[in-house]
Amino acid sequence: MNVQQFTVIGAGQMGSGIAQVAAQAGMQVKLHDIEDAMVQKGLKGIEKNLTRQVEKGRMKGEERDGILQRIQGTTQLEEAAAKADIVVEAVVESMAVKTELFRRLDEICPPHTILASNTSSLPITEIAAVTKRPEQVIGMHFMNPVPVMKLVEVIRGLATKDEVYLAVEQLARKMEKTPVEVNDFPGFVSNRVLMPMINEAIYTVYEGVAEPEAVDQVMKLGMNHPMGPLQLADFIGLDTCLYIMETLYEGFGDSKYRPCPLLRKYVKAGWLGKKTGRGFYSYEG
Ligand SMILES: CC(=O)CC(=O)SCCNC(=O)CCNC(=O)[C@H](O)C(C)(C)COP(=O)(O)OP(=O)(O)OC[C@H]1O[C@@H](n2cnc3c(N)ncnc32)[C@H](O)[C@@H]1OP(=O)(O)O
Ligand SMILES: NC(=O)C1=CN([C@@H]2O[C@H](COP(=O)(O)OP(=O)(O)OC[C@H]3O[C@@H](n4cnc5c(N)ncnc54)[C@H](OP(=O)(O)O)[C@@H]3O)[C@@H](O)[C@H]2O)C=CC1
């Protein structure tokens, strides 16, 4: 597939990272969010990342400027999607929000457009079912931080056509990522394995087994994880962690996936981790 225009919906931490790597791969990118403030924040984050590369002597200033020129921010969904060859959705991890968005994208986009979701855990088949093109809907799950992490989990829905899978696999390689194929089950592979570990780490704090710093030190020094599970939870976003645990809990109907009450409490308090300045750690100031 020759992608001329790559559209990203949602300019949060994942959407902005996906827009950056798509533009670095030479594609024209539209970055959409409902709030202009979020679009501007996303664009600023991309500029900061690229400027760091220039300062480190890994990229020329003109190259950075070229990448930035290829990314256009917008709050108009029609403008973002009307000429897209592929749309990658990276909005909040909510089935209701994603299905409403896919319904609209299906109406706006040309017939050839592939509709991909960066969902962490939600069933691709269910998202695809609200469109008239379920064979062109697929999961393209990037990891955070997108410019650094090599993996893209590629998830086939029940109806996804082979040629769509192959096009997305090729696109991931063009973006200098390594695609890994998985089937459509709650949490796929990445979050079915990662998130119960994070949830269990939260239980150890909830039950008073250890302080967050101690839990993280155990996993960093003892298991060589680059970040401890609580630092990682703050980095991912505690709202996203809770949504993923709920998807696993509901999807498998197994009590081993019940979200820790402390995780619920923090999310209710608005302590969503790094993005709101407070989670298991404080990021203010
Ligand atoms: C929830 C889901 O659905 C799926 C997920 O994504 S789960 C989360 C998956 N991600 C992880 O597990 C990340 C675990 N953490 C790590 O790998 C590392 O801590 C890290 C790569 C984030 C940072 O690495 P570090 O060595 O601790 O810090 P640091 O030296 O500052 O950064 C290493 C490099 O990453 C870059 N980097 C760090 N954070 C970045 C960000 N947010 N955006 C862009 N680049 C970033 C730095 O610029 C640096 O680049 P260079 O080596 O080229 O200079
Ligand atoms: N965080 C992570 O580590 C990872 C997350 N993911 C997945 O990526 C997706 C996004 O996560 P993340 O980037 O962390 O979340 P963020 O909260 O950082 O960003 C989500 C963005 O989407 C915007 N948004 C919400 N609804 C809409 C809509 N209908 N149309 C356009 N924009 C909308 C939000 O705006 P506003 O704030 O105004 O609501 C916000 O700017 C989720 O599905 C998540 O599960 C996947 C891999 C890793």
From TrEMBL:
Q: GO annotations under biological process?
A: butyrate metabolic process
Example of a GO MF term: 3-hydroxybutyryl-CoA dehydrogenase activity
This protein's pathway = Lipid metabolism; butanoate metabolism
Q: Site described as Important for catalytic activity, positions? A: H141
Q: Which UniProt keywords apply?
A: NAD, Oxidoreductase
Query: PANTHER family this protein is in?
Result: 3-HYDROXYACYL-COA DEHYDROGENASE FAMILY PROTEIN, 3-HYDROXYBUTYRYL-COA DEHYDROGENASE
Q: What is this protein called?
A: 3-hydroxybutyryl-CoA dehydrogenase
Species of origin reads: Kroppenstedtia pulmonis
